[in-house]
C-alpha cells in the first residue's frame, strides 16, 4: 500500500512533529485533502494526501518527531486490492538484509531499524554487551511464559527508539498505547517517570557481569543521565511545545555557522515624513496600514539586486547565488517564530511588499500558512524594533548567508552638515544589524551591502513611488 511520508517543510528543516491527525484509520481521503498537521520551527502546516483512498494505518502518533521522508501513514489507494497477492505477501514476509548506517531517512542520524532475525554468530564484544543488557533488565515473557526474541521488534518510530536509548529504556518492557500497540513518546516518558528506566539501567551488584578484554565494564552499561535539579517550592515546569523543540534544533544547527555582524544607523526622516503624509489616504484606499517594514523590505531588495553574494545559500559544494529574490519575513507567533517568504520580492512595489508582508503575518499568526509560504527563502528580514530594541544580534536562517534586522526608530540628536557648517538636529534614527555567514562573504562586502540599504532609505522623499 502507498505510504505517506513526512515532507520537507523548508530548505533548512530536517524533521517535523505531528501536531494533529485530521483523519483517523478507516476514513476516506481525497487526493490533496489535508490529513495531518505538522509542526516545525518555521510553520504549522497541513499536509495533503498524495493519494485518494482509505487511511488504513497511522504510523506516527501526535507529538512524535520524525525526520524528513519518514513514513507516517498508510493509505489504501483507490483501485488497490484489499489483500496483497501471494507473491506480494511472500515478498513482505521474506527476511530483508539489514541496511547499513547512514542510509536512513534524509536528515536523520538514526540507524535504520533491523527487521530480520539477528545472526547466530556475533562478535565477542557485541555478544557481551547483549548479555549485560539481558542481566540489567528483567526478562519479559508473553502470555505463554515464553521470552520474546532478543531486541525489540515491535511497532514504533526512530525518534521513540532514540528517546528510549537516551533513557536506557528496554522497549520490550513498555506497554504501547498507540494504534496497533505502538509504543509512543508519551509511553516512554511515563515509563521513565515511574522509575522503570533506573531498573533497566542499574543491575544488582551480584548480577553485574565481569569486565573482559572484549567488553570493557564502562561500555557494557550506558551511563544514567544526570538527574535534574531538585524542585523547590514555587517552581513550575513549562513543557516544551513541538514548535519550541523544532526552534531549538534549528537554532543549535545555525549557531555552528561562523557569523559576523556589522551595524549601521539610518536617518529615517524621509521615510517617516512620506508615511505620515500618505498613511491616512493609504488606510482608506487599501484597508490596511502602511508599515515601515515595507520601506525597509524595498531597500533590502534593491541592495540584493546589486550584491548577489547575499541573495544566496552556502552549501558544502559551494556558494549558490539565487536568481529569484525571495525575502523571508520573521513573524512572532504565540510562543514561537515563523519565517514566511515573499516570493519574487524584487518585482513588487512598496505597496505590493506591504500587502504581501501583512497577508503572510496574518496567516502565520492564524496558523493558515501553506507549505509553499515557508519554502525557498534566499535572505531574511527581521523586525525586532517593535519590541523597543535598538540593537539585536540575529541568528542566520541557514543555509541563507545573511539576515538583516530593523530596530526601533528613535528620535535623538545627531550632527548634520549644512552650508554654514555642522549643526545638531533631532532626527528619527534607526539602527540596522546585518548578520552574515563569514564562510560565504567578508566584512568589506557586508559593509557595501548595508551602505546601499542605508543610501536607499535616506533618499526617500515626497516623490518616492509607493504604488
Series of H and E elements: EEEEEEEEHHHHHHHEHHEEEEEEHEEEH
Helix content class = 25-40%
CATH level 1 class label of the largest domain? Alpha Beta
Mean pLDDT: 78
What is the spatial order of strands in the main beta sheet?
Answer: 9-18-17-16-12-15
Looking at the overall shape, the CATH architecture of the largest domain is: 2-Layer Sandwich
**What is the fold named in CATH at topology level of the largest domain?**
Chloramphenicol Acetyltransferase
* N→C terminal distance: 53 Å
Tell me the domain tally.
3
Question: How many DSSP H or I helices?
Answer: 11
Radius of gyration: 28 Å
Q: Could you say which overall geometry the principal axes of the C-alpha atoms support?
A: elongated
Detail the poorly predicted runs.
82-150, 198-224
Q: Could you name the CATH homologous superfamily of the largest domain?
A: Chloramphenicol acetyltransferase-like domain
The secondary structure category is alpha+beta
Strand content: 15-25%
Kindly state the number of beta strands: 18
Q: What can be said about the biggest beta sheet?
A: 6 strands, mixed
Characterise this structure.
With 467 residues, the protein is an alpha+beta fold. It folds into three domains: 3-81, Beta Barrel (OB fold (Dihydrolipoamide Acetyltransferase, E2P)), CATH 2.40.50.100; 125-220, Dihydrolipoamide Transferase (Irregular), CATH 4.10.320.10; 256-458, Chloramphenicol acetyltransferase-like domain (Chloramphenicol Acetyltransferase, 2-Layer Sandwich). It is 27% helix and 23% strand. The chain contains eleven helices and 18 strands. The strands form five sheets. It has a six-stranded mixed beta sheet with strand order 9-18-17-16-12-15. It has a four-stranded antiparallel beta sheet with strand order 1-8-6-3, with no helix packed on it. A four-stranded antiparallel beta sheet has the order 5-4-2-7. Helix 9 (292-306) crosses helix 10. It is elongated. It starts with a strand and ends in a 9-residue tail after the last helix.
